[in-house]
Amino acid sequence: MTGEGPLDLSQSQALRRRAVAVDATLAYEGYVLARDRLVDGAYPLYGERASGAHIWDVDGNRYLDLILAYGTIILGHADPVVTEAVLREIRDGFAITLRKRVQVELAELLTAVIPHAEKVFLLKTGSDATSAAVRLSRVHTGRTRVIRWGYNGWHDWCATRPGGVPTEAQAVVDSFDYNDLNSLRAAFERHPGEVACLLMMPFEVDPPAPGFLAGAAELAHEHGALFVLDEMRSGFRTAPGGAQERYGVRADLVTFSKAMANGYPISALVGREEVMRAVGEVHISSTFHVNGAEMAAAVATIGQLRDGAILTHVERLGERLQAGLAKQLAEHGLPGRVLGVPQMPFLRFTDPDEAARGRAHDAFYTETTRRGLLLHPNHHWYVCGAMTDEDVDAALEATASGFRAAEAAAHG
């Protein structure tokens, strides 16, 4: 069990020693996120099981999970309705050469729930969907250049690291400063008549300023480009219809994954029929695109989210958590900010003294992990529908201990 002292992570560490000999994602430093597991020896690496809002590591430690598989979990781990829907597909055969009925049902559901979605293209991963959106945009407009913002995947056009990526692939990609329409306007003006699409997350940590998303869409259309929303994180979390519904904006194409199927690997590109016709002119294919198990998971997940009650619950709990964090931060006099929308909260230490900031940061996350709260130090967190008010109370008890540890470390 988790408690006040250091965790027993002996089984996690033993598995890691085995893994570094064979698993490239652990053998080399810096895979995807820097310091993805914070302090070596203080953070669990391998999990055994999960249920609702909690996970158990291989050493038997139990945690309230606010990482939630990087946002793929919205209902809660091992949701019974989703699990049963998937098991039905597995029992009947989920890869049977022919398309399955559930593919039609999911496409119909997506067009009913997502604003302005007239056609659906089901894929597997988020990178599949964003790259498909770029390819369709290029065909539809007859242009090549892309303006993008946020984390949009790992393919050549948007990879965040240069290794293995031809310089030509990103020579036709530009970016801009979030919440700054003048910066976006300048990006379009640098390449008049060349931009196929503006592809962007609606937000990451900071919410969109009033009118920003609508202004971005207007700028894209003014310059003859498509407006594409990357809703991998916001989709089926901020509202049943995503950011378009939440912020009253209209996109030509929208991409979804993560919470769409409560952890199962599936993604979708949806959009206006006029644009989606380009599917017939491009090559985007995978043997696994038509597997039915993940589609059944998506139908079962969206069916539970559709009336908005679970997402209202998630938002309310996130607001409680953010308010509690802000109060604790002020009480301890630590330089920092509580960030993010309630469904995806985050905390950032801001002490101008880099050494003091680093000590506070590490002490906070080490202590909260020991207290049974799983937070990511370098990626915003998530709230799920299985969380309760009692879970928020427990989280705030853990963060109170974390702030005490951070204060002592910063001044040590």
From TrEMBL:
User: Where in the sequence is the signal peptide annotated?
Assistant: none
- Entries under Gene3D superfamilies matching the protein: Aspartate Aminotransferase, domain 1, Type I PLP-dependent aspartate aminotransferase-like (Major domain)
Query: Which terms are listed as keywords in the entry?
Result: Pyridoxal phosphate
GO MF annotation terms: pyridoxal phosphate binding; transaminase activity
Keyword Nucleotidyltransferase listed? The answer is: no
Q: Which cofactor does it need?
A: pyridoxal 5'-phosphate
Specify one Pfam family. Aminotran_3
Q: Does the keyword Ribonucleoprotein apply?
A: no
Superkingdom, natural source: Bacteria
Q: Report the sequence similarity comment from the record.
A: Belongs to the class-III pyridoxal-phosphate-dependent aminotransferase family.
Q: What is this protein called?
A: Glutamate-1-semialdehyde 2,1-aminomutase
Q: Which organism is it from?
A: Micromonospora carbonacea
Q: What is the lineage of its organism?
A: Bacteria, Bacillati, Actinomycetota, Actinomycetes, Micromonosporales
